[in-house]
Structure formats: C-alpha cells, structure tokens
Amino acid sequence: MLRITDDIAIADWELVEQFVRAQGPGGQNVNKVASAVELRFEAARSPALTEAVKARLRRLAGSRWTTEGAIVLFVQDTRSQAQNREIARERLAALIRAALVVPRRRVATRPTRASVERRLAAKRARATIKDGRADQGEE
Fold first, then answer.
1. Domain residue spans in the chain?
2. pTM tops 0.90
3. Which has the closest alpha carbon to 88: 35, 49, 37?
4. Which of 36, 107, 111, 118 is 20 to 30 A from 135 in CA distance terms?
5. How confident is the model at residue 36 (pLDDT cuts 50, 70, 90)?
6. For position 116, what pLDDT does the model report?
7. How far is CA 49 from the centre of its chain?
8. CA-to-CA distance for 70 and 44, rounded, in angstroms?
C-alpha cells in the first residue's frame, strides 16, 4: 500500500515493479545485480484517482505517461535495489500529490491607465535614444 494522502492510497496490485541491471559505475556489482527499478503504475485504470486528477497527472507525467495510460518511472540512483525501490515509490507519490493540487483559475485583469502611460513613455524615451544614435553615424 502506497500512501499518498490521508484519503488516497494506491494498492500494491496497481503497482508493477521490475528490477533490471543499472547502467554507469558500480564495478562488478553493476554486471551481476539487478539494482535499477522500473515502477509501473496503471494510472488511467486506478480507482483511487478522480478523472480530473488523472488528467492533471497525465500532463505532469509528460513522457513518462504511456499510450496505455500507465506511468513508468525508472530509477537507478543508488547501488541498492531497496533504496532505488523507495526512491521510485516516493517520486510516484510526489507526482500524484502534485496532480491533486487544483490550479487556481486566472482572473483576467486590465492594466491601469498609469501603467500603460509609463510603458508608452518608456518606449518613447528608448526611441529617442535610438534616434540619437542614427544622427551620430551620419557625420
């Protein structure tokens, strides 16, 4: 059971872990031990998440979201299989927690008259400076 919040928990049957050989340094250990973990979570079929959360999760997951609606995390940070497993589970939990946050709707506003006038005044001043440069080059 992977606890996300007090209300949401992912059942173990929803997670599939596969251990493979890691890349990079590790000496003889890296050639013998399958310490990297590939964690697969079938997010699209998960009963623990609402459709809105799944939609946000899909956007946040990016390339980690598969066409079948699963999230695949690959972790090979440490030489320890157990540590890599914990890191993968924590990353998945963090990703789901981020998807639970409902973004605030942006309220359309108009710039104040004073801010528009300041911007236009700054543009006129900049144009004057640039016009002055053109005169210097003709001499």
1. 2-100
2. no
3. 37
4. 118
5. confident
6. 96
7. 18
8. 6
